[in-house]
Write a structure and sequence with these properties.
657 residues
Amino acid sequence: MKSKILLTGLACLSLMGSVKSQDLIKLIPEEAEMIAAFNVKEIVQKANANKLNELLQKAGLFKRIEKSGASVGNDIKNLGIDLTQTSYFYSRKTDSVSFIEFIFPLSNKGQFEKLLHDAGEPKPFANGFSSIALKPGSMLVYNDRMARFISSTMNTTFLDNDSVANRYGIKKVAYMDPAADAYSPEIDSAAAVADSAAVAVDWEEGEKEIEPLSPPVIVESLPDTVVASVEAVVPVPMDVAPAEMHDPSYYDSLYTAYEDQNRKNDSIRNALRDKWLTGEATRLLSASYKPLSVSDQNKVLKNLGLIRLYVPHVEELYRGLMPYKSIPYLYMGINMDKFRTGYQDGVLDLSQEGNVLKLKGSMGLDKDLAEMSKRFYARKPNGKFSKFLTDKTLGFFNFNINSEAYLRDMPSYMAKYYGGLLGPQQDLVEWGLMALEVALDEKAIAQVMPGDHLFVVNGLRKFRKEYIDYTYDDDYNATEVKKTKDETLPVFIWMFTSKDQRLIKKGLDLAIAKSLGKTQDGIYAFSSKKAMDFPMYMLLKDDLVMVSNDSLSLLDIRQNKMAAPANKDFIKLMKQNKMSAAFDLQKLPAMLQEMGISPGRQWDKTFAQLNQYGSTAITSKGIVDNRMEAEMSSKLPQTKEGAISYMIDQILLEIDK
């Protein structure tokens, strides 16, 4: 009976923690562009709280806190921050200003306030929150439950438009009027002096901030609705004497006017930014906005590992990053608003599984793009590649795509998703893509190169390399001299399937006929140019085409003499993924030593420890449930506490050096 009560209590506590995290995520507005969730409890547990404290102590954080008048006893648990809940970061963008916010829960408001001693005295803000101004354009608001750091940045392109700039009283000025020489210099000079004098009346020397003549008024706390009266045009006094172009005072007055107006413009921008920041904070704390949808909340929290980055609308984010408003795209007839990618939401996860760190990403695709992509990646890895992944393999890259489907569908894909970028030439380009689709014989091309490729690095070998040197006579006349030297380099082989090798063989034979290469033991050899590069070799065997920098490796393959044990981990990665790449870090120290490369004394110990590491891999299963997936993983040395704890140990060792 007691055990049942205990289990029930634990379940309730777990549910309470989940509810708190969900309460915080509801504070994120629907129009957020990027959202990051930090599973603080999991991070602290995986990292080991004691090691975190040691790391922060050696980094000097606790000493800086003590200097500010607070004492936390060298323990992050005394910071007043709740380390059992999830914290959030998000960004939001408007035409005029970009906002970021970091939301984290508090366990002890009093302890947290002590950390802010140097920042100033907290002031009542709104809805029970206190505020502290930090650096310009940012503020911290907090209550008993949470703290919210909010920052704002003016979008540089917003005030580029003259009508928008004039609306807020911002004048665009140049140090020299480009039309000064083309027209009457006396008139331009008089106008410049008059503007300088007029500005000087409004500007006091040493003044740090100048408010617009009519301060911006926030309407419904929305930055894009801020309105301000335009400054009245200052009349040019008629009694100002024309300044001569060669008079230094003329240029001094221009420069003074230029600097004064720019300072005034900056003060207006800063005033707008601060007012919009205050308006945004008020809007957030009053909850006068639509929160993130339940569906998006679930995508942020479901199976959360250590850290998750979530982008609700990848296409909108991508379009917002394009600088088409500041470059003449529209003059070329290109409408970026019609740009389409077919991408939906994106997720990036950082997680730990024992001694393995994983970074996993996925992106949602619309129905048409998902179906098309499934056809692109319908080809399975070639099982014949497995025998080339051996215990000598340092690393490999395998990629599989259905060439026939790619050639067949790519023209229609380009027309559908990128047609909006073509402007007035859209019809012509679409016609050209259609003609290309008709002209290509995708079935025939797919026989030559179906789409499965393997690039593998199998050990090292000494190569004798020719190079050009110069000798000089008594008159410093140079003479070319061919020399040789031995270099130890990785041996690579690139191979791909080709069921119809006639075109490739015809091309190779033609090159031999033109004395561009030679054949020996069934291997095509192409010499280097000007004795600067290594020769390249090609082998056609069965239905494989192979390219390598080592003729001996190809000769072993041709004679079926590859007897090295298989690398089962690499073979498993290749067979289970549409795309895979891996590198065995354990072999890196020996490889560098054999090549004569020294990382330096400060890295000797670090490189020696690589013998305990496993492989680092990047893999992709292609399209899974209408989502494109990819993953990067790294096997760290096996320890009792796991990957993150091991990384902190290494950082502490570096600090102690």
